[in-house]
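Re: weekly structure request thread

Next one in the queue (146 aa):
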Amino acid sequence: MKKNETKSESANKAEAKKSVNSEKDPLNLNGKDNTKKNPERNYVELCGYAASSPEIRVFENGNKVASFRIATHEDIKNDAGEWTRITMWHPVVTWNRLADHAMQYVNKGSLVNLKGKIRRRSYTDKEGLTRVRFELVANDLAANIA
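Done, posted below.
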């Protein structure tokens, strides 16, 4: 608050600044202005069907990772005016407690809702070629148990 300002003027300016910050960041869930730190978020929500049950690996330090793929569909109209379905496959990785949940609730054909981020990972295959893989690292998972 400046010397010539009243408390209500200072509060109005703070409220105006807060509303401007929330307009910049529509996903501002915690009320903080994160736009200066990371204006382009790596945030993904995906809903699809599990291709198979998750495979789980346990590391020496006790960490667990579950890996599986989900399929999403998109119906598009081709040049002939006919509808065709395009299927895309997305690799998913969950860690520790969420890996346990994935093992318990995700089965082949389960409808799965995921929230997380996209991670780029590169590795060298058996033939010595460098491969790049993009995968969804989930931090929230919900499976429709049918």
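The chain has a mean pLDDT of 81. The longest strand covers residues 130-144.
Next request, please.
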